[in-house]
């Protein structure tokens, strides 16, 4: 199955994830809910995780095959101190905090990559999925 077709199959899930993260933004090094959300998804995909890096960071490491090669893919999770005035259904539920820089999208895209790679295992080596807290600091 082509990559884009498989990812399109879980587009609705990814939309739900992004909206969930967007509605519950957290400032740098306070991404507790987001960290829990990310860890739960990675565990659901069967990706072993390590938590607590820089406090709220999460790293999932997926190994397949025999190669010693490794790559890290990174996404930032924190939000900004901005008042959201979009009026959308999934607008920030936290006064004065908003995902205005796209980190909700970055986190979602990396979760999508983790899901795809965990399902297909079409690689040889290790992929580290790094969910970074506090990028805005």
Could you explain how this protein is built, in words?
Helix content is about 35%, strand content about 20%. A four-stranded mixed β-sheet has the order 1-2-4-3, with helices on one face. Helix 2 packs antiparallel against helix 4. With about 140 residues, the chain is α+β, with helices and mostly antiparallel strands. It has one domain (about 5-130): Zn peptidases (Aminopeptidase), CATH 3.40.630.10.
Q: What are the SSEs and their pairings?
A:
Elements: H1 3-9, H2 11-23, H3 32-44, E1 49-53, E2 57-64, E3 70-76, H4 103-120, E4 125-132
Parallel strand pairs: 3-4
Antiparallel strand pairs: 1-2, 2-4
Helix pairs in contact: 2-4
Descriptive key words:
alpha+beta; 4 strands; globular; Aminopeptidase; 137 residues
What's this entry about, in short?
By secondary structure, the chain is of the alpha+beta class. It has helices spanning 3-9, 11-23, 32-44, 103-120; strands at 49-53, 57-64, 70-76, 125-132. The protein has one domain: Aminopeptidase, CATH 3.40.630.10.
Radius of gyration: 15 Å
The tally of domains stands at 1
Which class do the helix and strand fractions yield? alpha+beta
The fold-level CATH name is Aminopeptidase
Shape: globular
CATH superfamily: Zn peptidases
Q: What is the chain-wise order of helices and strands?
A: HHHEEEHE
**Order of strands across the biggest sheet?**
1-2-4-3
| CATH C-level name | Alpha Beta
Which stretches are poorly predicted, pLDDT < 50 over at least 5 residues?
Answer: none
- Average pLDDT across residues? 95
Helical residue percent? 25-40%
First and last CA, distance: 41 Å
Strand-residue proportion? 15-25%
The helix count comes to 4
The strand count comes to 4
CATH arch. level architecture: 3-Layer(aba) Sandwich
Major β-sheet annotation: 4 strands, mixed
Which quaternary structure do these chains form? Answer: single chain
């Amino acid at each position: 199955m082509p990559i884009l077709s498989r990812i399109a199959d879980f587009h609705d899930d990814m939309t739900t994830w992004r909206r969930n993260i967007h509605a519950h933004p957290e400032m740098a090094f306070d991404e507790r809910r987001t960290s829990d959300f990310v860890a739960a998804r990675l565990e659901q995909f069967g990706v072993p995780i390590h938590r607590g890096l820089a406090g709220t960071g999460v790293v999932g490491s997926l190994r397949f095959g025999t190669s010693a090669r490794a790559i890290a893919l990174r996404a930032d999770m924190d939000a900004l101190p901005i008042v959201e005035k979009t009026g959308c259904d999934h607008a920030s539920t936290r006064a004065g905090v908003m995902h205005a820089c796209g980190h909700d999208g970055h986190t979602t895209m990396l979760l999508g990559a983790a899901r795809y790679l965990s399902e297909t295992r079409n690689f040889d080596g290790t992929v580290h999925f790094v969910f970074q807290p506090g990028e805005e600091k």
